[in-house]
Amino acid sequence: MSQIAEKQTPDAPGSAKDPAARVILAGLSQSRKTLPCFLFYDVHGSELFEEITRLPEYYPTRTEAAIIEAAAKDIALHTPPGSVLVEFGSGSSRKTEILLSALPSLSAYVPIDVSRSALDEASARLAVRFPSLRVFPTLGDFAEHLSLPQALSKRPRLGFFPGSTIGNFAPADACDLLSHMAENLGPSGRLVIGVDLRKDLSILLPAYNDADGVTADFNLNILVRLNREMGADFNVDDFAHRAVFNREESRIEMHLVSLKAQSVELLGHSFAFAEGESIHTENSYKYSIPQFKELARRAGWFPREVWTDPKSLFSLHELTIAH
Ligand code: TRP
């Protein structure tokens, strides 16, 4: 997905009809402006996100990796031989390697991601480290219907959804997504899912606003991308990254704040910004362990295990359908 909308140039008259363009225009037309989070992950955005995962302030990735490491044996004990591992939003598949080493009897690994480059790189790396593993890279949105290769359709499925990506959905949508995954994983399905926990703001805020400004670049890259791919004229220096914790909603909110009164042209539309007005680009909901279990139950799952780190920063849940 290197182009948001293939045939578009700034002066192509039909371009505003493209589905992605329509979502973008609708978001910017609201009284509280928003942009869709699918804009984050172009090639550069995916690289910046990889860099975020290595930042000292961004505790989720390394904390979750350590939890998976410690839980892998237990997960393997619950996994029947010949199972298929399906990963939703696989990205670089780094954390998956920990599971794959603990699960030698898998019949296949199905990584699903919207980034072709991330899928290609991960598959090439896994082919070297796990030469006998069958990998079926699947380009697409993990929230859509999953069709597994015919040969695998009867195998038990283990879903893997790390990174607290579930936290990027509002609770009602998260619930829909979890029930959708339950359907896709079938009656003997299980899901191992990473969920970031509520915590002190002194730890939480820097994770979304690091000292080197990588997260700021990641957020601002959306505007760079709209300029390049849709002919917008955002002056990127006139916007700043801001991350705030919304206590009532229990979520980190990511915004791009307009540093002055200005207007921006996009696909023949003009959008006015007041000084200090923001575009809301992403949410990252934080749960307590009981809150997340409750959400999973509402979606038709049965919480079977939960693992956490010594500081209770992050949680890894194993959910089952049959029990
Ligand atoms: N799933 C990640 C999270 O919520 C995504 C993320 C991390 C992110 N840092 C970000 C999204 C900065 C937007 C901006 O932690």
UniProtKB/TrEMBL annotation:
Bilayer-crossing regions: none
Pfam entry (one): Methyltransf_33
Enzyme class: transferase
Every Histidine-specific methyltransferase SAM-dependent domain range: 23-319
Biological process, per Gene Ontology: methylation
Superkingdom as given in the UniProt entry: Bacteria
InterPro entries associated with the record: EgtD, EgtD_Methyltrsf_superfamily, MeTrfase_dom, MeTrfase_EgtD-like, SAM-dependent_MTases_sf
Keyword terms: Methyltransferase, Transferase
EC number: 2.1.1.44
Presence of the UniProt keyword Transferase in the record: yes
One Gene Ontology molecular-function label: L-histidine N(alpha)-methyltransferase activity
Protein name: Histidine N-alpha-methyltransferase
Gene, per the UniProt record: egtD
